[in-house]
Amino acid sequence: MPREKKTISELEQKYDLELGKIVENIKKEKAKKVLLQFPDGLKPYATTIADELESKCKNVEFFIWLGSCYGACDIPSVPENLKVDLIVQFGHSSWNYKDKELSS
Q1: 35, β-bridge pairs
Q2: CA–CA gap between residue 76 and residue 68 (Å, rounded)
Q3: CA 37, 56, 31, 101 torsion: positive or negative?
Q4: Are 47 and 64 in contact (CB under 8 A)?
Q5: Distance (Å, whole) CA 10 – CA 77
Q6: What's the pLDDT tens digit per position in 55-102?
Q7: Domain residue spans in the chain?
Q8: What are 64's strand-pairing partners?
Q9: How many other C-beta atoms are found inside a 10 Å radius of the C-beta of residue 15?
Q10: pLDDT tens digits, 27-58
Q11: CA distances from 16 to 36, 80, 84, 94 (A)
């Protein structure tokens, strides 16, 4: 049975998405290309979340990672030509990759 479409307000009642923190970080880092990675449970709502972020972050391109996500240590192998400025992973754990090089 497909999941019904939910609004951001409905999602934020169930999940602590921390969208305000994400918007703040995008602006602080002056990111122009942002990759969003979701666990399977949130993937059906990925476009709703991306649309909300787009409405708050002008001139920022958002990409949704559709590959697997097995936890906070599962960083996607982003194609070099995409040149992503920031990866935002939605999940249960908090990780800070500032000043660390990400490689596959």
Answers
A1: 63, 87
A2: 8
A3: negative
A4: yes
A5: 31
A6: 999 999 999 987 665 555 556 666 676 788 998 888 754 455 544 444
A7: 16-28+38-69
A8: 36
A9: 13
A10: 999 999 999 988 888 888 999 999 999 999 99
A11: 16, 31, 24, 12
